[in-house]
Amino acid sequence: MASHTNDRINVVYQLAARDRKQALARARDMTVEQTVEVPADVVPRRLRQTMVGAIERLERVGPSRWQAACSYDPAVVGDSAPQLFNLLFGNISLMPGIRLVDLQLPRAVLAGMAGPAFGIPGLRALCGSPAAPLLCAAAKPIGLSPAELARICHDFATGGVDIVKDDHGLANQPAAPFRERVARCQDAVQQANARSGGRTLYFPNLSRGVAELLDDLAYVRSLGCRGVLLSPLLIGLDTVRTIAARGEVAILGHPTFTGTLLQPRHGIAPEVLFGTLFRVIGSDGVIYPNAGGRFPFSLKSCLAINQRLRAPLDGIRPAFPVPGGGVDVAHVPYWLDRYGPDTMLLVGSSLYARRNLAAATARLVESIRRYGDG
To answer: What is the pTM of this model?
Structure first.
């Protein structure tokens, strides 16, 4: 980006266009559509100079593919986080062949974002793990009773996992009503900690809806839960920001529903969505699909997500990358070597496949701690 745009919102898009003329026309239309949303020739000059975005650079990046660097005055956003997301990928999300691939937010905008309330240092303090990678596991599947889910949480905590979270599909189903499930799972983790001297945390999933959200948050806090699982694209990006700003609980952000945006030629690049946007709205840890798992993510994308989550960002705390979606116990050493100690691995199915869940978890925890000591 050009140095004179450091105080502006800088966004880079890739556009489908047959030639430079069409690419420039699309970029101009885009900056108008995302701001004043009326024909450019009827926009007063003072607004064209302030509200409409500027095209800083346009270059070809492939056959029928162009990259447009645009910048916007932060005044377009004001103090509204939803308006920021609207500006970045609002109406243009309805137009084919547009992909947001890079983003730099100025201090004036970052000041209005919550950012992680705990971040990497805070989560480490809660877990009592100052240096080693962290381990997360999920209580599942849907259909189990509260007692059955609590037993799983107890086994994970007995094995020494740092965080056991609800599966993101656990809500308020008849098989395991929200309040009973959370109370039993939290109690099971606390009992296991009391016996072992461990520091395992239980993060319930808050997904019943906005009407119940604050009551559910107060309830889990009354039980002693120090964190929650939230799915930003289901409950709303600004809902996450609002909870993070309260500073009461740590937040793990879940990627469900994001596949609608993560297309190769349209949408938002994974490192921007998970590495920047999920972080600035307040996720202390961001779950994303790891390379080689159930979902088609590349190692390059995963490394880019990790880098953005941990990079310095104008006072915004760094957040834990939480690769999941098929991390096999056998491959944990490989991923720790690739990602480093400031990583929280989400391991699930490969632990469930072991005959003794608590013992298998304990072996994995011990290997991760040896990595941290090494």
So the answer is: 0.95
